[in-house]
Every structure is written in structure tokens, then in C-alpha cells.
Amino acid sequence: MPKIAALHGISNIYSKHKPPGHATPRKRAHKREHAWVDVSDDDLEVKSSKKLSSKGTNKSDHGPRKKARLSAPPGPSFKESLHQQRKQLPIYSGKDAVVDMIRENDVTVLIGETGSGKTTQVPQYLLEAGLSGSGMIAITQPRKVAATSLASRVASEQSTSVGSLVGYSVRFDEACSSDTRIKYVTDGMLVRELLGDPLLSRYSVVIVDEAHERTLRTDLLLANLKTLLRTRNAPTSAVREGAKGKGKGKGKERASEKLNPLKVVIMSATLEAEKFSKFFGGAQVVYVKGRQHPVTIYHTKTSQPDYVDAAFRTFFQIHTDRPSGDVLIFLPGQEDIESLEKSIQLYANQLPKDASGVLVCPMYAALPPSQQTKIFSPTPAGMRKCILATNIAETSITIPGVKYVIDTGKCKEKRYLAKHTGTGFDTLLTRDITQSSAVQRAGRAGREGKGFCFRLYTEEAFNALPITAEPEILRCTLTSSVLQLRCLSQNLEELDLMDTPEESSIAFALIALVLLGALDNRRSLTPLGRKMAAFPLEPPLARALLAAPELGCTSEVLAIVSVLSSSSSLFVNSHDARDAAADARRKFRHPSGDHLTILNVVRAYEDVAGAESKAGRRDWCRKMFLNERCLAEAVNIRAQLRDVCERQQIDWRVGVGDSQGAESAILRAMVQGLVQNTAFLQPDGSYKQVMGHTILKIHPSSSLVDKKVPAIIYDELVYTTHIYARGVSAIPRNFIAEVPLLKQRTR
Ligand SMILES: Nc1ncnc2c1ncn2[C@@H]1O[C@H](COP(=O)(O)OP(=O)(O)OP(=O)(O)O)[C@@H](O)[C@H]1O
Ligand SMILES: [Mg+2]
């Protein structure tokens, strides 16, 4: 353990940042030729499910709503202070120009520096100016935490609680009511809304925020908005004629139905304005100048290959040398966060008694929302908060108290490894960030006062970073999106997209959907495919669930699928108590492998939950080295899935229990979903994919790690030194043959 004094040794590793060439947003926008993008590691995750309450008075412990309850009804001085804060934002002086521009144009591209007030203010300006008419204003966010925390802030600014005038809707959580006029949503949720309301007719304005991230869902939304604009904003006479042609005498009603114009606003601090403007046929571009508080940027003088160590030293240098203010550290992933959390905590415990304490808060996608929102809680007196985050905290959010940002310059990016694996899979790879990300990260400081950003890379390295990364649609699995689009009678390959994915990735998605039975051989949507899309699950898990009723095991498959959809892992790995953890795990182990092992855990947890208090449950989980968060989250997800089952007229209570043949029924259902994730044993003890050519090993975390069984199914592949299959069960070879399209391959 280094002594604090030794930390001063790095005090000269930084050089102050010379402003980059793109000093103003206008200049920057002209310079860029490629779309901005960054990885979204948030949206596919299923988090806790909370019941919708009609007035948004959800009793959950969700952070933003808790905050809203604290702030509503606010006292007059608090209200006045918020009012003053709003008036001091750079966007305030351009308010009328922004509103006029949006009033006069169907599509507006709005660019303004981080913290200038785009996300919180523009929707309020539009509402106050009456631009939303009787409809709602939707503001999309690539990440859930941004949608929920912004709704909370804007509700406070409007002196109401979240769920009334200002609400949000994210996967498995919603706080809205009939009074809601401003709604923060994830882009994925809005794409999903298209399924029930293809014209998005409830919305008068759709603001696509952080459009530079170019998530897969943002791109799908943009393509749909372009079509929607044509339909909803067509001149009334054209609509009337069109309606007459199709509507068999209902011309008049349809005409008035369609007379519901839509406004679209595209926003970001780091956006390639021309590309977006061109995509929307020459949309107007508005720039909001200036930022409220300066951010001083430092680069290291030399490169720092051990970025975790450099972040550690920089944090303690700030902690010992700099005035109060919380610190936000950007790291690529959960492992780095956990290791840095440990070292910071260890070191902080050894600080002299008179030094201020350190409160470490991790922040990554796999943490449940209630944990994530802890970063927004006020820092206790005499403490400095240190938030360790992935790029989940990179855009959009304001974390009150944060004055210092430490940027390691690394992120994890989702990439589709089709070429290596035959069937293809998404994997997360650590890579350097883009200049756009670096600007966004620095923008998390300086929101309430002066800020400082310490980049753990040199200025030359910054200049050499790519300005943008590839849009997600060009590098990720498209299966779920292709299915959703088919439900809208759309084909991805025919959609007017900003960037078109490679033919091979569309082909892989189509093959997967045909294998799952969601599309038929002519690639048309089947009734089964439509049912699959109704479940907020990845298509393979939706397929497994829909295979269960015929096999009589819906209740069991629901339990397994809910745990697999949870955002954290079920088992706790303990380096310090490895043997005890292995002993505990053995108690649940099922000879067939990990899926029935999960079921054993869920059943044991249900027994404990029925008999024990909350504390007793927690204690049991701790002793069993189980992650209670995962189990509690799975219970919520299961409740949500049961609701969908009911709407689909599936009796979720039907189960096989401990009857003879229970194991084979459950595994048969899982095979139907994991049909692409099947492999046969090779003479050398490795496994070869049935659908591809990849040679796999069973991951060390699996209960089947040392076993040699004729055939396996698995949940996912992870790519480290080898390609490993994780979440593995042994199955008889003939189960695979039951999937019609795989019969030939199994002979
Ligand atoms: N939860 C909050 N607590 C305190 N201040 C806040 C909060 N949310 C927003 N603010 C204030 O409002 C300002 C504008 O925030 P807003 O999110 O609208 O900016 P933005 O232009 O959208 O920034 P970005 O490009 O980073 O998303 C912040 O810089 C901060 O001063
Ligand atoms: Mg914003």
C-alpha cells in the first residue's frame, strides 16, 4: 500500500489542455464527416419491474421518484432558486429563437454545448409555448438512468412530482398518467410503442436526444420518424384523397384522424449536424452558444498503460490536494470498477483521521436501478463521493456535486463476431474512446460550477482518437430489431436508414428468426413470431417461453427466463471464500447443468422468502453466495412476464413440478429457444457448434465445466483466451433433431 505522500509523485503528469480545433459547436459540426457513435451497454438489460400506477405514485424505492417526492411540493425558496437556475442557462437567452425555429419547421437539429440546457429546458419551452397542442412531448434517451433522472429534475422544475405533468417510460418501469405532457423515454421504448401505435399519434413532438450515440434503436426510430412525418404532416387534401381511396366511405373521419402534425427535434452536444439535416431533407440547424461553467481539461504528459492504477493515484491526488467536490471516474467495465472500488476503499480506510472520508459508488448497466440511482443522493457532510462508472454516465445526466472527472479513455464496445463463429454473437471489447465521448465525459463536470477533467492520456493521443465510432447498426446483432420491424410490416433492408447494415448481418438475423419459427421459409412473419415480439425478451428466450405451454412447463421456464433476463449474475464469486462458495453452489447443482440449477435456486429462494423476514432472506443469500439483487429482480421480471402471458392467453401457472419427465420437458423448451446455441462433443473433448464451425469450451463458471456430454445448449458465448460457452446444460442429441430445420445436421 503506497503512502499518500508517494502520490504526489504524479502531480506533474498532467499538462493543461489546449483547446481543440473545434472550439465552438458550429465549427465542430462543420468539421465532422462521420456520424458520432458510442456503445450503449444499457438498453438490452432487463432491470427491475415496477407496477404502473395511474398517477405515478409508485411506492417503489426508485431513486428519481424518491427525489421527486422529496422535492414536491417544494417550498417557495427552492422553487425560486430553480427558477433562477433555469434563467441562467445559456439556452435561456435563445429561448424565443429556438421555439420559433421549431414552430416553423417540421424537423430541427439543435446543437449546444454539454450543460447548456437542451434536455431539461427545450421540452418545457415547447410546452409553455403551446407547441405540443393536446399531445405529448417525448424526449428519447439512449439510457434508462438518464430518462428517469431527467424526468425527476424537470418535474422539480415544474413543481410537480414525477408521473404527473412530467413522466418517464423505460423498459419494465414507467411513471406516467393521463396528465403527462412531457415524457422522457428510452429510444427502445418508443420503437416498441410503434407496435401498438404505428403513427405515434399520442405525441405532437418527438425529441431525439443524444442522437450522436447512434444506437441501433435511435437509427430505427429516425427511419420511422422520417416516414411518419410524411404521413402525419401531409397536406390535408392529400390525406383526404388518400383516405378516400383506401377507406371505403370513411374518408372524412380518416382525414381528421390524420390531421395530427408531428414535430421532430434532433439534439446533442457532439453531433454531425449536416448528416442529420441531410437525412431529413435539409432540416434547419440551430446552435446554442456557450456553456454556463468552464471545464479545465488536463492531459497526462506520458501515456498511462495501467489506467486503473493511474485513476487510483489521480483520485487520491484530488482527494488530498483539491477543494471539496465529488469525483466521477470513467472506466471501461464492471471488472475494472470492482477492482478500483476495492483499492480505493482499502486506501481510504487508512487515511488519517482528520482527512475527509470517501464514499465509493459504482455505476454500471448490470447494477439494478435502485443501486444506480444512489449516485444522485447527496454526499454526506465530511465525505467526498467517488463514482466509478462505465459510459452509462457519459451523456445527458447531471450528477449533483460532481466537480472532477477522471477519464481513462477506455470503453467497452459491443461487436458482432460473425466471421469467427459461424452463427455470430455480440461481445464486448475494450477499446479507446472517441473524441466525441471524451467531450461528453468532460461535460459531466462543470454543471453546477467550475469543473475539472483529468484525461489519463496525452493530448497527442486525444488528437489521434477517432472523432466518431461506427453506428451500432453496423456492428451488432439485428435479430430482435428485424423481428420488431416485421411486426410493423417493415423490412430492415428496405428501410430508409442513415447507415445500412451489411447484408450478411441482416442474413444472420433472418436465419435466426427462421430457426426460431418467427419467420417462415418465405421470411414472412408467423403468428408465433408476433407472439414472441409481444414479450420484452430477446427472441431466443421468448421462443423458449412460448415452447413451454405445450410441454406443460410454463411456470418453470418462466422462472429460468426471468433469472436469465436479470441484469446481474445469480452466483456471487468470492476470491476469499472460494471453497465455501463452491460448497454452497453444490447444494443447488443439477446434474443436467446450469438451467435446472437456476430453477433449484429459485425454488429454494421462494421457500426462504415465504418463511423468512427480509433480513433472514438476505442472510440466507449471503450464506449461499447468491446475489439477492438478481433474485429480487427476477421476481419482478417474472411478474411482468406473467402479465404478458395473460394477455396472450397463456396460463403461467401450469408446471411440471417434480413429475417424471420434468427435466426433459424443461430442457426441450430451452432447446427451442437456444437452437442456435447448440454444440456437439468432439473427440478431443471440446465442443463444435451445430450451426457454425466454432470450437467452444465450457466456461469455468458452469456446473458442467469438467464434464463431457454428447450435446450442450448454452446461453451465450464469451470471448477471452478461448471462445467459452456460458450457462450450459447437457441435452440428448435427439432434442436438437426435434427442431425441424436442424434435423439434417444432426444425422
Ligand atoms: N439534477 C440536477 N441537479 C442540479 N442541476 C441540474 C440537474 N439537472 C440539470 N441541472 C442543471 O441544468 C443544466 C442543464 O442540464 P441539461 O441536462 O438540460 O443540459 P444539456 O444541454 O442537455 O447537457 P448535455 O449535452 O450534457 O446533455 C446543468 O448543467 C445543471 O446546471
Ligand atoms: Mg442533454
TrEMBL record:
This is RNA helicase. It catalyses: ATP + H2O = ADP + phosphate + H(+). Belongs to the DEAD box helicase family. DEAH subfamily. Its EC number is 3.6.4.13. The keyword Metal-binding does not apply. Keywords: ATP-binding, Helicase, Hydrolase, Nucleotide-binding. It comes from the Eukaryota. PROSITE patterns: DEAH_ATP_HELICASE, HELICASE_ATP_BIND_1, HELICASE_CTER. InterPro entries: DEAD-box_helicase_OB_fold, DEAD/DEAH_box_helicase_dom, DNA/RNA_helicase_DEAH_CS, HA2_WH, Helicase-assoc_dom, Helicase_ATP-bd, Helicase_C-like, P-loop_NTPase. It comes from Dichomitus squalens. Residues 1-85, 236-255 are annotated as: Disordered. Signal peptide: none annotated. CDD domains: SF2_C_RHA. One of its GO terms (biological process) is positive regulation of transcription by RNA polymerase I.
